[in-house]
Amino acid sequence: xxxxxxxxxxxxxxxxxxxxxxxxxxxxxxxxxxxxxxxxxxxxxxxxxxxxxxxxxxxxxxxxxxxxxxxxxxxxxxxxxxxxxxxxxxxxxxxxxxxxxxxxxxxxxxxxxxxxxxxxxxxxxxxxxxxxxxxxxxxxxxxxxxxxxxxxxxxxxxxxxxxxxxxxxxxxxxxxxxxxxxxxxxxxxxxxxxxxxxxxxxxxxxxxxxxxxxxxxxxxxxxxxxxxxx
Amino acid sequence: xxxxxxxxxxxxxxxxxxxxxxxxxxxxxxxxxxxxxxxxxxxxxxxxxxxxxxxxxxxxxxxxxxxxxxxxxxxxxxxxxxxxxxxxxxxxxxxxxxxxxxxxxxxxxxxxxxxxxxxxxxxxxxxxxxxxxxxxxxxxxxxxxxxxxxxxxxxxxxxxxxxxxxxxxxxxxxxxxxxxxxxxxxxxxxxxxxxxxxxxxxxxxxxxxxxxxxxxxxxxxxxxxxxxxxxxxxxxxxxxxxxxxxxxx
Lengths: 230, 249
Known about the structure:
Shape of chain A: globular
Number of domains of chain A: 1
Number of helices of chain A: 3
Shape of chain B: globular
Oligomer: heterodimer
Radius of gyration of chain A: 18 Å
Helix content of chain B: 25-40%
Strand content of chain A: over 45%
Strand order of the largest sheet of chain A: 1-3-5-7-9-11
CATH superfamily of chain B: P-loop containing nucleotide triphosphate hydrolases
Largest interface: A-B, 20 and 29 residues
Distance between the termini of chain A: 39 Å
Structural class of chain B: alpha/beta
Strand order of the largest sheet of chain B: 6-9-10-3-11-12
CATH architecture of chain B: 3-Layer(aba) Sandwich
Strand content of chain B: 25-35%
Number of strands of chain B: 12
Order of helices and strands of chain B: EEEHEEHEEHHEHEHEEEH
Radius of gyration of chain B: 18 Å
Order of helices and strands of chain A: EEEEEEEEEEEEHHH
CATH topology of chain B: Rossmann fold
C-alpha cells in the first residue's frame, strides 16, 4: 500500500493529476501513485491536491492520520466528468492528537451519464482537543443523466473542537448566465467561466504558478469540449 | 425621418409562465432621445426591459421589435449586446469566483470578436478599466473583486454604469436604476448616464418615481399600466404623475 509519512516539522505538497494525455503539457499521475494512507507527525503539514480530468474513472481511498500535536493536513480535490466516468472518492480524516488542523475541499462537475460518489469523514478522538476540522464537497450537475452521491460524516469524541462539514449539489445558475450574455459573453463562454470559477478554489492550491496556469488552461479546454457536446 | 429610428416596437405581447404581462406595446425611439417608462408596480416595466435584452424566461407571443433595422427577437441576448443594447439590471447578479477584471475582459473581447476585431491588448484593457472606473468613482480595488459579491446597493448600480461605460452601447435600458440609491450615488449614476449620451444614442429610463428624472431629463415620457402604454407626453408628464398618482391618469 502506498503510504506517505511526514516526519515532525516537515512539509509536503503534492499534486496528483489523473488524465489521459499530455496534450498541452504538464504532469500526469497513475492512480496507484496516490497514497492510500498519509501519516502526519507533530507540527508537520501535508497539502495534497487531487485532480481527476474528464474521461478518467477513478476509485480513490485516502486515510489521513494526524498523529502528533500541531499536525496539519489539507486535501483538495476537483473532478470533471462529461461522459461515462465513475469517480469514487473516500477520505477518512483521523484527528488522534490535540491541536491539529485539517481541511478537505472537493469540488466537481458531473455531466453525461457519469456517476460520482463522495464520502468524507472526520473522526476526532477523545484526546484530540482543540481540533479544527472542516470538510466541504460541492457539485454541479450538467445533465439529467449524471448522478452524484455525497455523504459527509462527522464522528467526534472530544468536546473542545471546531468542526464543520457541508455538501451541495446544484446546477449552473441561469440568472448568472443571462447577466453575462447581456454583456455580450456567449452562452458557451458564460458556462466555461462559471465552471472554471467553480473549481478555481481547488486549483489555487497548486502552488507553482506555471503548473497551475497550465492545468487551468487544460481543464478549461476540456470543459469547453464537454459543453459543446451537451 | 425614418432612418433616425433606433428602436421600433409594434404590438408586443409577452408572457412569463403562461401569464400575459405585456398586452400590446407600441414604442418608437429615435436617435438622441431619452425615454422614460413610468408606471405602478406590476405594470410590466421590468418585463419590457427583460424582453428587450432577450431573457429566456419570457416568451414573446405577438408583435415585432426592430433595432437599427434588425429583427431583435431573432437574436440571442449576446447578439443583442453586440448590436449595441445594454441593460442595467434592477437587481445586478452576483457571480462568485469571477472577478470584475476577468468578467469585463471576456465581455469586451466578445464584443470585439463580434465586430471582427482582435482582442484588446492587456495594457490597453487595464487602462480602459481604470479610466471607466474613475468615471463612476469606483475604487481601483474593485477590479479584483468578484462581480457584485458583497457589494452595497449603490456599489452594484455604479458597477452597472461602469460596465455601460466600458461597452459603450447605442441603446441603454436602465431598469429601476434609482432603487436602493442614496442621493450621492444617484447623482454619480445619473451623471454617468448623461455623460455617455450622444446624439447617436438613446436611453430608456424605467422608473417608478420622479427622483431619477430630476437628474436624467427625458424627452418623452410613457406611462405603462397593466401591460399597455396608456399615456405618452413630454417631460411635463412626470410632474403630473407625481401630483395625481397613476390611478387618476
